[in-house]
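Handout, section 3.2

Students often ask what a structure token actually looks like in practice. Rather than define it abstractly, here is a full record for Alcohol dehydrogenase catalytic domain-containing protein. The first block is the sequence as you would receive it.
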Amino acid sequence: MPKLEFDACVVNGKKDVVIGRRELEYSAEEVVVKVECGGICGSDIHYYYEGHAGLSIIKHPLIIGHEFCGRVYHAPVGSRLKVGQKVAVNPSQPCQRCEYCYAGKQNACQNMRFMGSAQFNPHVHGGFAQYVKVTGTQCIPYDERVPAEVMAFAEPTAVVIHALNVAGSLVGKKVLVIGAGPIGALAIAAAKASGAAEIVASDLSERCRDIAVRMGADTAVDPAAADDMARYTASRGYFDVTLEASGAEAAIASSVLATRPGGVVVQIGMGKSPLNFPVAQMLVKEIAWKGSFRFIDEFTTAVTWLEKGLIDPRPIISGQYPYSNIEEALIAASDKTLSSKVLVNF
């Protein structure tokens, strides 16, 4: 079988990331993608700084990265994929055999092989490498004219589109987005593309509030400024839909206060458990509090929206680094006072 030698960004454990030389063997029936660009996610930062992301602990060297795109390097004869074609790579690999997959809830698959994850042992390597072997179904072709730095956002864009599907129709609705980091900023753009009548962003950071406006928010407020939030929490709330993307306990509690009776709160930010939550107010106002986790079939939709320019993620980009400077890139991405989304170029 043909072989490729390539460089990969490998985390060995806490504060230990290297450029490792790897070898890839592939058959005539397999798909190989030459990676062009990837985005650093919070889980990549956790693997670097802590040696784990939640309960997923690094037990052996892991190639990180699950937000990436590239070009087809090799495809089977007769495949719909063509060598040289630009593709976004879906990092989600559900088993398609469990009860959740059969029910169309692949994001709940207990056997999910998610790229760049240490959940299983052996780990599932990610896409921060010069070359990666994937399945044909993971590859979504896109227009040659779209820059790789835009399509590197396909995975987080799929996350926010799924959250909007959980929320229901936003047409004509008043929408609050709490937390204007990368996910919150993309949620703002997605809400605007989905017909929201008014979008307000809430974030402690002036830098993030500025990005929120550039991404389509009508207003961006500082939740620490009581006067800024008073009009939205008076009269039992203002918003039809609240998208909570920060995961902060105080923000989660405020989502109930700002949402009007009969409204919907979609929890996107992971946060920490346990937390204090205003259950009584949620109950009295008959607010639906819904969780949103990853995505199902929204990845293809995300590629289409980015391809057509319905969402332009470039205001979120705060830095780009060559893969050889992966440690510098991870450190920059972890500094939330300076960075939103840091990209790695291959």
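Discussion prompt for tutorial groups: The mean pLDDT is 96. How would you have guessed this from the sequence alone?
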